Every structure is written in C-alpha cells, then in structure tokens.
Amino acid sequence: MNFDGEYGPSTWEWVAEQADLYEKSNGQEGNTLRDTGLPIIVMTTIGHRTGLVRKVPLMKVEHEGRYAIVASKGGAVNHPGWYHNLMSNPTVLIQDGPEPFETTVRLVSGEERAEWWERSVEAFSPYAEYQEKTDREIPLFVTEIPT
Question: Whose CA, among 41, 78, 108, 141, lies 20 to 30 Å from 131?
Fold first, then answer.
C-alpha cells in the first residue's frame, strides 16, 4: 500500500499535533494520551473518499503482537470518520515506537470481540462509559500480526 500520498491532517488540532509530534520524535514524545500517562499508537489510513493519508492517535491495546483499534469516538452516535476508511481499505500503518509497520485490520465480533473489548477496557477504562453513552455497538478491529 502506498502511504506516501498527500497528507490530510485531522481537523481536530490536538489530534494532528499529537500524531505529528509522535512521528517526528520516533515515538519518544507525544506517546501518551494528554496528561493521563496512558500509552498511544498512531494509525495511518487512506481516506475512503479523498484518498488522503490520514493519521490518528489511538489508545494502545496490544496483545501478543496484535492491536485493538477501537472506534469509540467518545461514545458519539456516529462512528469516527476513520472507521469508514478501514471498512473501505483494511490496510493500515501502525506506529508503536520508532518504526511504523504495515498490517491489515479486521472487524471482530462474538467471543473474539468480547475478549478484545475486555482488554480494551482494561487498557482504557473510559471505553466502558463510552459504550453506555451510545446505542451503537462500538466497532472493534484487530490487526493481523505483521509478516
């Protein structure tokens, strides 16, 4: 996948700034969610309508080399915009430290989703509150182990 195209930063200033800081410092700075001390990763997708490169910091939920990608949007009624990017093209870059790696994601359900949801809430407890705030089931993607 080509992630060298035109970059379209997030319209949420803090999101764009954090992704930029994380990348420029090879994951040494901007690697936690604001002042929580909780670790984040940066996911890069390709915009499903625009074709622009999109980057978003996400909570780090990792288990045995795979990552959960939780489309919570803080419990909003709609999915985050990047959800549609993943549904259109599941190939992403994940950066957890100095070097990003390419992988694919898949939407999980059933028992597998329940296991990953538990891990996600353990890593970032507000996810449980976000789910209570919305009628939609918060989508949860899991990365494949990179080859």
Answer: 41
